Amino acid sequence: MVLVAFTAGEEGEWSVTSVAPVTGDPLPAAPQLAVREGPAAAAALGGTHQSAAAWALAGVTSNLRYTTRDELKQLVPVSEGLGRPAATRAALIPIKKSAAWWALSQDERLSIISTSQHVAIGLKVLPAVSRRLHHCRDLGLGPGDEAPPFDFLTW
């Protein structure tokens, strides 16, 4: 697992061109977005950079919890990594699931994802579009900590 921080503010390697919430309130406007991984993510979340940020979100990469073996066999040969030179545009999609979603068992959630054709739709845009899911739900759940505002961040 790798910690990844997304901080929006006056600095960052990505220019923010639009914010389009589907439901809920939008994140505060900011001109730039910085993405940091590993120790650099921890520093971005705990240092002076966060206090200057319009907002900061964090998640961790993890095992593929919502992908079957057969789907993985289809995805791997046509997927390209993030951060390649040809990747000049990006989207950050924060996702909050309902309590009803989390009350489902893992196999029930996987069944919903599978029947939604999520992977089939993704295969249509690969390799041009790369994406990675970051899990946020377990971050910040220590004694006295608030839960993160989102359950997943898709980048």
TrEMBL record:
This is Uncharacterized protein. It comes from the Eukaryota. Gene3D superfamilies: 3.30.70.3420.
